[in-house]
Specification:
Layout (H helix, E strand, L loop, with lengths): L1 H37 L1 H6 L15 H16 L8 E7 L4 E6 L11 H13 L4 E13 L2 E10 L9 H9 L4 E10 L28 H14 L3 E8 L9 E9 H9 L4 H14 L14 H7 L25 H13 L1 H11 L25 E8 L4 E9 L5 E9 L3 H16 L1
Parallel strand pairs: 4-5, 5-6
Antiparallel strand pairs: 1-2, 1-10, 3-4, 3-7, 8-9, 9-10
């Protein structure tokens, strides 16, 4: 009996020892796994590189001198409301902040909102993107008669002003009568309208480009153009996404490079062009061979997806032009947006070489007309202006090229200040950035 008890005890001890050993082995294996999975030191020990350390660049003497001068300028600014002023300056060359003043305060950005519209469309569609409208013959031509249909495949091109060239191409093809239909395949069938919070007089129906006046108006304009050219037809209809066969004959094509729309949008601060570009992102994928669902991202979703900025709580983006007085952004965000654009060589070159206003330039002074006329600004400031006079809002965001070769991104937002005085303050600050 005692032997049996002793055997049971020995078996129990062995079981306990085995269980404890198993637990210890499991814990050791878990520790090894966690070490190799998460420890930067493991990478270093096994030749995978040194542990990464965040390199913090501090402002140097040039940056600190600019910061002192800007601070002094703000202290002397008696004609503007400095409680509704935001300033942010970033040294692009060295990668460090130079100066911040209320830079995280949400204010009305006015037309500096167009910078977000521009960056987004350049990144998503590309600088070489083309608005393209085409005219096809679907049938055969005999004795000045088209036996078949005429297809108009129209993009939402904001630069197309009339259909005269389209009807001239039909006439040149030897067609005087269409024994069939005129088919309208329009990328955009609705009318362009500003956000309901904007002032109704900012974008009137008269200002809306032809292809964004709505399908009835587009069809009416083309009918009138056909009549003026002496071309008759049997009927017309509105269809969507009409498939093309191999027999379809291209008669005429009208193309506009995206960059040609961005120039008046940014240099001259065209609100109409900005709204056209803003909504074009949502429609453009319908004409792409492989639709890209990322084009439908809302602007702030795009910002988040690209990792441009991570403090967007309570930001408001109602439109692409900045006409809505309820828009809210920060100077810090606008500077980070410009830094993002600067890192992308394509966007940077479009902005600096083509599409941002620059003082005293013969064709690119745009909304800077009458400002920064001193020689020190010439070829050194590339920016976007913003003004909502009714809400005492003025802004200026862009790049400054210092005389020592250094590049800065800056943003100045004035709210609740006389526009004239705000502009004088902005110009004075820009002078500190170039001199």
């Amino acid at each position: 009996m005692q032997k049996k008890v002793r055997k049971k005890k020995r078996r129990l001890k062995k079981s306990v020892k085995r269980g404890c050993l198993g637990i210890i082995i499991f814990l050791l294996l878990l520790a090894v796994f966690l070490f190799f999975r998460y420890s930067p030191a493991a990478d270093f020990l096994f030749g995978k590189g040194e542990p990464e350390e965040e390199v913090i660049v501090e402002p140097d003497s040039v940056d600190m001198a600019i910061a002192e001068d800007v601070q002094s300028l703000i202290q002397r600014a008696s004609l503007i409301d400095t409680t509704k002023l935001a300033v942010d300056i970033y040294d692009l060359t060295r990668g460090c902040y130079v100066y911040e003043y209320h830079s995280h305060r949400r204010l009305i950005p006015a037309s500096c909102m167009k910078l977000l519209t521009g960056v987004r469309v350049l990144k998503q569609l590309g600088a070489d993107h083309q608005y393209s409208s085409k005219e096809y013959i679907l049938g055969r031509v005999k004795d000045e008669t088209l036996y078949g249909d005429l297809l108009l495949q129209m993009d939402d091109d904001p630069m197309l002003l009339s259909f005269a060239d389209f009807t001239a191409a039909i006439k040149a093809r030897g067609i005087s009568h269409i024994k069939g239909r005129v088919i309208y395949d329009l990328l955009r069938t609705d009318t362009l309208r500003p956000h309901h919070t904007a002032q109704p007089y900012d974008i009137t129906y008269r200002q809306v480009p032809l292809l964004m006046k709505g399908a009835p108006r587009v069809m009416s304009e083309f009918r009138a153009s056909l009549r003026a050219a002496g071309i008759t037809y049997d009927s017309d209809t509105l269809l969507y996404n009409v498939p093309l066969t191999d027999s379809a004959e291209l008669v005429y094509q009208y193309q506009t490079p995206l960059r040609e729309v961005l120039k008046p949008m940014l240099i001259n601060s065209s609100n109409v062009k900005a709204e056209c570009v803003f909504y074009h992102n949502q429609h453009a994928q319908d004409r792409l061979t492989e639709p890209d669902t990322t084009l439908c991202m809302k602007p702030l979703d795009f910002v988040q997806a690209e990792g441009i900025y991570d403090r967007m709580a309570d930001f408001v983006v109602n439109d692409g032009s900045g006409l809505s007085p309820e828009n809210r952004l920060t100077a810090d965000f606008l500077v980070q947006l410009m830094a993002y654009a600067y890192k992308d060589s394509v966007i940077r070159n479009v902005f600096i070489d083509e599409a941002l206003a620059t003082p005293a330039h013969p064709t690119r002074h745009g909304s800077l007309l009458g400002r920064m006329s001193a020689p020190c600004y010439h070829g050194r400031i590339f920016c976007k202006t913003g003004t909502l006079v009714s809400f005492a809002s003025s802004s200026l965001t862009g790049y400054a090229h210092h005389k020592n070769g250094r590049w800065f991104a800056f943003s100045i937002i004035n709210n609740n200040s006389p526009v004239y005085d705000a502009r004088e303050f902005q110009d004075a600050l820009c002078r500190l950035l170039v001199e």
